[in-house]
Amino acid sequence: MFHDTTFTSLDRLDSAEEATAKFVMDEDTFRQFYDRTARGLWAYLARITGDRQAADDLLQEAFYRFLRADATHDGETHRRNSLYRIATNLARDARRRSVARPEANVAGHDIEAVAAGSGGPSETSADFDRAMARLKPRERAILWLAYAEGASHREIAETLGLRPTSLKLMLFRARRRLADLLRGGTRATR
Amino acid sequence: MQPVECEFEAEVLAAVLQSRWPDRVDAELREHAAGCAICRDVAAIAGAFDHAREEMRSLAALPGSGRVWFLAQLRARREAERAAARPLAIAQILAAACAAGLLFECWDGLRTTVGWLVSGFAGMDVATQVAALGIASVILLLPAAAWLAIRGE
Predict the structure, then answer these.
(1) Pick from A150, A56, A158, A177: which is nearest to B37 by CA?
(2) Nearest Cβ partner of B69 from A30, A42, A125?
(3) CA distances from B61 to A14, A69, A88, B116 (A)
(4) Burial of A188 (0-12, 13-18, 19+ CB in 10 A)
């Protein structure tokens, strides 16, 4: 309960460097990592939440929790997977909160509005947005990681906390459903 | 059992992403995809994802990495300060609870003592009463003054 802090800890917290001593990486490494991953992570969060504002908030929270996580990473891919896993869990929690408090509207789908605000979506883009909005959040996450991020089955399973064997079937079903929606099929609407 | 993977789906995906699908791929692969539901699905969605990824990435209005680092530092510091202050708050609550318990236990004795002091005070002449009040005030105010002085440092 008392962790490793003492009554004199307040006096020792003179510099921000001390407070960030437990970050998983130093500033230069973080800034390079952020520049490589932030844009893709924002796109992922915006897609799975369907909400740009939520994506902005979750992005910063995800990076903060990543920095504070008591973890060691084998390399860039492992590091990136950890970040995406944190972000996925945050998005799931935000969705649960929005279900409990509908007025929060965290899961409101404004991606079509996003496209409209960027100079008008093409018909294909609008169709894609509508089709994606009809999928379950987990289906959206699986498909986005597989086809927008180019993640392997193992990476997707690790990010979403799934078994690789289950993932293959889930990916197959999600892909089938989206393809049917894009073709205007009836099977996906069931 | 229906297959959920196809050995050619990676090839179809690569062809779509490289804008070679369907005209600039081997006829063999095209023929396979025509009869393979998995490859057909991959061909149907891969281009849309590629387009959506570029669109979404261009829309992202991200804070700079320096700002994110700075805010993380501030937050970590605030959290560390809160964690350090927590034992102090717990000690204060425990002390208040002990004082309340002690007061409850000693209530009868305290009443007797107060009654004895009041009756003794009533029996004094005026000059002694003034002197007693002065001494009592000093005894009560001294700790308060000391506390205020320490707090001000």
Answers:
(1) A177
(2) A30
(3) 33, 26, 20, 77
(4) middle
pLDDT tens for chain A, 190 residues long, are 434 444 444 444 555 566 656 788 889 999 999 999 999 999 999 999 888 899 999 999 999 999 998 888 888 889 999 999 999 999 999 988 877 655 444 344 555 554 444 444 556 678 898 899 999 999 999 999 999 998 999 999 999 999 988 999 999 999 999 999 998 854 554 4
Ramachandran region, residue A161 (left: φ > 0; alpha: ψ -120 to 50; beta: rest): left
CA-CA distance, A99 to A150, in Å (whole number)? 31
Q: Using an 8 Å CB-CB cutoff, list chain B residues near A145.
A: none
Number of A to B CB contacts under 8 A, please give it.
140
Contact A54/A45 with Cβ under 8 angstroms?
yes
pLDDT in tens, B92-151: 899 999 999 998 888 888 888 888 888 888 888 888 889 989 998 999 899 888 888 887
Nearest CA in chain A to B43: A179
Q: Nearest C-alpha of chain A: how many angstroms from B110?
A: 35
Question: Which amino acid is present at B136?
Answer: A
pTM of the model: 0.70
